[in-house]
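[worker-b] picked up task from shared queue
[worker-b] task type: protein-ligand structure
[worker-b] ligand name resolved to glutathione; SMILES cross-checked against name lookup, match
[worker-b] sequence length check passed
[worker-b] input payload:
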Amino acid sequence: MKLYGYWRSSAAYRVRIALNLKALDAEHISVHLVKDGGQQHTSEYSELNAQELVPTLVTELDGKPFKLTQSLAILDFLDDAYPNVTLLPKAHADKAIVRSMALLVACDVHPLNNLSILQYLSNELNVDNDAKNSWYHHWVHKGFHALESMLETHSGKYCFGNEVTLADICLIPQIYNAKRFNVPLADYPNIERIWNECHKLEAFDKALPENQHDAV
Ligand SMILES: N[C@@H](CCC(=O)N[C@@H](CS)C(=O)NCC(=O)O)C(=O)O
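[worker-b] inference finished, payload out:
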């Protein structure tokens, strides 16, 4: 199994956590998102991923090569194919709540703060650094404020009860990114607590950006 990713990519970070939780070996292939204008835009990589984004998973299925893009689809695939450790609770309603928390981060926060969006703000709309940072902070606060209230109801040790789920897998990389952009997190005690709890687990620690072979 090969995972095309980048040490600082939140979406690849999600998949790394899941691979670690499920004790799956993968070859990690680095696609440098910044060097030379971004290796995600090379013709070689865009053949693998038409969106020119990481991650991409390449594996074998029924003896044939199988390629998959979009981190949430990859996580679903891994969860179905390797159910040794599951990422979703069994009960329908519980599963839906976990997905709701995961999607809050993956659909409503992360896309607005992604590299190409920030580059577009600077390079095409001439937005200065302060305004770009306000943009970044605004969308994190909006998402985290809503998530914090969901966590008051649903969290235990982790986002949903006392088992690690897809919600934690999506949240932890977003927290990492928010810390990198100096977003103050004091108003989100549950989010901070879950960050600390998850990092007691090797699967999360091993997936940290600075622990990747392409980290600089
Ligand atoms: N929804 C996609 C998002 C993928 C994505 O935005 N990847 C970012 C890194 S986290 C990327 O490749 N950015 C490169 C760029 O914006 O040019 C997923 O979950 O896989």
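[worker-b] attaching auto-annotations
[worker-b] The chain has a mean pLDDT of 97.
[worker-b] releasing lock
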